[in-house]
Amino acid sequence: MFYMREKSAENILKAYSHLPLNENIDNIFEYLYNNQIISCIDFFPEKRYNQCLIYSYPYTLEFYNNISNKLPGGLFKYVREVLLYAEYPFAQEFFLRIQKSFPLMKKLTVINEKAQINKQCIQSNYDTQYLSIIEYSHLTTLALKEVHDDYMELFLDHTKMCLPNNLFLRVTYHSLERVTHHFQREAKKINCAKLRYLSIYGISSIPEHVKYYFRNTKIYSLK
Question: Which of 43, 102, 143, 147 could disulfide-link to 151, CB 3.0 to 4.6 Å?
Fold first, then answer.
């Protein structure tokens, strides 16, 4: 298994600069001959760095971090922990791709503060079932602490996302409050009822109306 994630191609060259030239070339050709080599470059202007990811396929690690819309595709059957990050919006179909590429994923973290794209298109085609319902069958932990409300809206909407039972969800209070319409929204209760644990960031104690909305869930407050 070959895996490397660097902030620039220059760093990759530096990482292997200590090897003799012939040895470097031999290693490269050996991997190219015996494995499929996948590469992906991402640009993050807000954080002012680029990311270059190179790995051999099939991918045998249990984690895959900093996945953006540029995910090359493929089946990652060994991966259990996934982190999605981008400085540009995720479309709903992207989460369907994640479902297909990571069928045994147990932990998912989403970091994206940009509003979801194609939202109007999806809503206008709702009756024609424009997109299939997303289902992460083996998911046990979902972290949505650093996301635009659109993504929490997606994950809590049972018509778009089928969450597994006994899920552990991590969210911020104000985002959850907005998406659930001050914890009064009936449409979100189907997926919310599947939560076993809920960590809410941004409050020191749990209000009674929140406890009532998640009455079958163990809730933790984290200031």
Answer: 147
The mean pLDDT value of the chain amounts to 85
Q: Which of 171, 175, 217, 210 has the alpha carbon at shortest distance from 195?
A: 217
Q: What is the pTM (predicted TM-score) of this model?
A: 0.84
Q: Give 158's DSSP letter.
A: T
- Specify the pairing of strand 195-201 against strand 3-6: unpaired
Q: How far apart, in whole angstroms, are the C-alpha atoms of residue 144 and residue 91?
A: 16
Q: Strands of 3-6's sheet, edge to edge?
A: 3-6, 49-57, 36-44
Low-confidence ranges of the chain (pLDDT < 70): 1-34, 118-130
Collect contacts of 189-193 with beta carbons under 8 A, ≥24 apart: 189/213, 190/158, 191/155, 191/156, 191/157, 191/158, 191/161, 191/163, 192/156, 192/217
CATH code linked to domain 59-222: 3.80.10
Give the separation between CA 10 and CA 43, rounded to whole angstroms.
14
Please give the pLDDT value at position 131: 75
The structural domains of the chain, with segments of one domain joined by +, span 1-57, 59-222
Place of tokens 């969210």: 171
Helix (H) and strand (E) counts in the chain: 8, 12
- Work out the end-to-end distance of the chain between its first and last CA atoms, rounded to an integer number of angstroms: 41
User: Residues with Cβ < 8 Å from 204, sequence gap 6 or more?
Assistant: 221, 223
Q: Which helix (H) or strand (E) holds 89?
A: none
How far apart (Å, rounded) are the C-alpha atoms in residues 140 and 159? 20
Q: What is the pLDDT of residues 132-151, one digit of tens each?
A: 999 999 999 999 999 999 99
Query: Which amino acid does the sequence have at 9?
Result: A
